Amino acid sequence: xxxxxxxxxxxxxxxxxxxxxxxxxxxxxxxxxxxxxxxxxxxxxxxxxxxxxxxxxxxxxxxxxxxxxxxxxxxxxxxxxxxxxxxxxxxxxxxxxxxxxxxxxxxxxxxxxxxxxxxxxxxxxxxxxxxxxxxxxxxxxxxxxxxxxxxxxxxxxxxxxxxxxxxxxxxxxxxxxxxxxxxxxxxxxxxxxxxxxxxxxxxxxxxxxxxxxxxxxxxxxxxxxxxxxxxxxxxxxxxxxxxxxxxxxxxxxxxxxxxxxxxxxxxxxxxxxxxxxxxxxxxx
Amino acid sequence: xxxxxxxxxxxxxxxxxxxxxxxxxxxxxxxxxxxxxxxxxxxxxxxxxxxxxxxxxxxxxxxxxxxxxxxxxxxxxxxxxxxxxxxxxxxxxxxxxxxxxxxxxxxxxxxxxxxxxxxxxxxxxxxxxxxxxxxxxxxxxxxxxxxxxxxxxxxxxxxxxxxxxxxxxxxxxxxxxxxxxxxxxxxxxxxxxxxxxxxxxxxxxxxxxxxxxxxxxxxxxxxxxxxxxxxxxxxxxxxxxxxxxxxxx
Amino acid sequence: xxxxxxxxxxxxxxxxxxxxxxxxxxxxxxxxxxxxxxxxxxxxxxxxxxxxxxxxxxxxxxxxxxxxxxxxxxxxxxxxxxxxxxxxxxxxxxxxxxxxxxxxxxxxxxxxxxxxxxxxxxxxxxxxxxxxxxxxxxxxxxxxxxxxxxxxxxxxxxxxxxxxxxxxxxxxxxxxxxxxxxxxxxxxxxxxxxxxxxxxxxxxxxxxxxxxxxxxxxxxxxxxxxxxxxxxxxxxxxxxxxxxxxxxxxxxxxxxxxx
Lengths: 284, 249, 259
Known about the structure:
The structure holds three protein chains of three kinds.
Chain A: H1 2-43, H2 46-50, H3 66-97, H4 102-116, H5 119-133, H6 139-163, H7 167-175, H8 180-190, H9 192-208, H10 213-216, H11 234-243, H12 247-281
Chain B: E1 4-13, E2 16-26, E3 31-35, H1 42-49, E4 59-67, E5 70-71, H2 79-85, E6 86-89, H3 100-111, H4 118-128, H5 132-135, H6 148-161, E7 166-170, H7 178-191, E8 196-200, H8 204-210, E9 213-218, E10 221-227, H9 228-233, H10 238-244
Parallel strand pairs in B: 3-8, 3-9, 6-7, 7-8
Antiparallel strand pairs in B: 1-2, 1-4, 4-5, 9-10
Helix pairs in contact in B: 3-4, 3-6, 4-6, 6-7
Chain C: E1 7-8, E2 13-14, H1 17-47, H2 51-66, H3 69-94, H4 96-99, H5 113-138, H6 141-149, H7 154-183, H8 186-191, H9 209-216, H10 226-258
Antiparallel strand pairs in C: 1-2
Helix pairs in contact in C: 1-5, 1-7, 2-5, 3-5, 5-7, 6-7, 7-10, 9-10
C-alpha cells in the first residue's frame, strides 16, 4: 500500500511540474505582451504613426516612424508575393507530378535545412552578392533577401497543407479524364485557404525579421521612394532607437515595438483563423 | 474469483450514444462472449469495464460497473488499481518495445509484486502461456522479434503477471493466423475456472467453441444474454435468430 | 583564425575564439534553462491535455513562435536586465559566486551571458515543445493502452513511451533548438554586452558570432581583410547550424524507419 502511495505521489508531482512549466511559459508570454503594451502605449502618439522622422529625431526631436512602418510593409509584401510565385508552383508541381519521388524528398530536406539557417547568414551572403553585382542597400535587395528567408517557411507550410488534400481528389479528378495540369488547378483551388494561411505566416516572419535587413535594406529617414533606394524597417527602427542614450527616443522605440507586435499578432491570429476555417470548410 | 456486473451503463462517443442502458452480470470463473456486428458497441462495452474507454476525451460514461459490489467509476476508486484487477488482452498483440523478459516483468515491477523472485515469476507466466520453451534462451532479445502468435501469448503472460482477477479479451485472435489463433484460444479455454473472462468476438464459431455465456449486442443495446447452449439452440429474440442465421450483420 | 583569441582588426588580428566561446556559452545557458521545462511541457501537451485545452495552448505557443527577435530583445532590456542586475546577480553572486567563479557577479551592468541565455531560452522553448509534442503524439496508441491496462499510472505510461519511443525525438528537438539558439542574432545582440572576450562567468558579457556579424558588417570596407573575416564568421555560423540541422533530420529519419 505504501508503494501505491509513492506511485500516486510521483504521478501528482510530475503532473504539477509539467503544468507549472506550461503555466510559466504562459506567464512569460503574458509578461512580454504586457511590458511591450504598457511601455509602448506611453510613447505612442498619432504623430509617431503618421509622420516620418524629422532632422533631430534621434536626439529627441519631432517626427514618427511612418517610414519604417511603410518600409516594413513594402518589404514583407514584396517578399511574400515573390516567394509565393516561386514556392506555390514548386509545391503543387511536386505533389501532382512526383509526390513520393527522390526529388520531393530531397527538396523537402533542402527546404528544412534552409529554414534552419539563421537570417543573419542570409543577410551576410545577400550583402556579399550585392557587393559583387554592384547593388547598394535597397528595397529591392531587402525584398530579394527576405524572399530567400521565407521561401522555406512558405513552401513547407503549404506543402503540409497540400499533403492533407484527400487522395481521392486525385483519383476522382484523373478518373474523369482530366490532364495532370487540370488536376493541378483543382488542387490549387482546394488548397487556396491553406495557401492563404501559409502566406500570412510567411508575411509575419518577414515583417519581424531584422538580422537579414540590417545590411541589405539599409536604413533611411525618408519614406520608401524607389526599388533601388534604401528603406527603413520596423525591427531595425526599434533596434536603432534603443541604441541611442536619450529616454525620449527610447520611449519611441517601445512604441515602435508595440506597433510591430500588434501587426505580428494580427497576422498570427488571422493565420490561425484561416487555418481553423480551413479545417471546417475544405473536404479532407 | 470476483464478480463483475454492469448496471445501466450508458456511453456517449462524440455526443452519439454508443452504449444504451446496458446491464449484465458476468458469471464468475466462466467465459462470457460478447458478439454482434461491427459498430454494435461490444468493444466500447469491454473497454468501459476497465476504464480504458475514458482515455479518449470525446467519451462520456454514465452508469455503474460493479467489481465485487464496488463501482469502479466511483470517484474514490483508484483507476490504476481497477486496471490492475481487470486485465485486458488487446486485439492486436502489442509487445512493449523492450526485451521479452521485461515485457512480463514490467507489471510486477511497477506494482512491487514478487520482490526477489521476479525471474521465477516471469518463468511461471511464460510457462503458463507455453512460451517458455521457445524463448528461454533469448529472454533478453527484443519482444518485437517474436512471431505474431508468440507476441499475443507474450501479451497474455504480461497481462496475467500483474495477477488480475478478471480478464477482458478484445477480439484477441482476430489478427492472428489460424494456427496461432487456435493456440491462444486453447489458452483462454485453460483459464476457465481460474479467471472470470469476458471476451469480444465477431466470430460466432469461436463463441460456440469457448463461451459458457453469450451476450448479443445490436446498435449499442444488449439484445440477449443467455447460457451458450440455450443461446445457440433456442435464441429467443428475433434479431438474435436472424444474426445467428447470418441474415443480418 | 579559429583559435586565435585576439580581436584587433586594425592590426590584422582576427581571432574567432572569443566569439565562438561567446556563442557556445550563450547557447549552453539557454539550453540548460529551457530543455527540461520544454520537454515536460511538450509531454504534457501531448499526453495530458484534453482537446479543448490543446485548442487553447497550441495557438498560444504559435504566438510565442511568431514574436520577432527584436521584441524579445526589448523585453530582455526592460525585464531581464534589471532582474539580473538587481535580483539574480547579487543573490547568486553572494552565494554560489563565492565558491564557483562561473557564478561570480563580476559585471554589475546585467548585460551578460545569462541575460542572453534567458532570452534565448524563452525563444526556443516553443520549438522544443512543438517537436516533443509531435513526436509523443506519433507514438502508437496501442502502446499506451497496453501500459494502462497493466495498471500503470499515466506518468509511468508516459515515462515508458518517452524512454522507448520518444528519446530520439527529444534529442532531435534539443539539437534543433540548439541550432536555432546558436544563430539567433538581434535579441542576443541587444542584451549580451558585446565585449570580445572569452566569458569566465555567466554574469560576464560576451560577443557571440551573429552579433559580431551584425555589428561590424557595414563598416568592414575600410579595414583590409575585414570582409573576408566577416564572411568567415558567417560561413562558420552556417556550417555549425547546418551540421546541427542535418543531424536532427538524420535522427528523425532514423527514428521513423525504426518505428
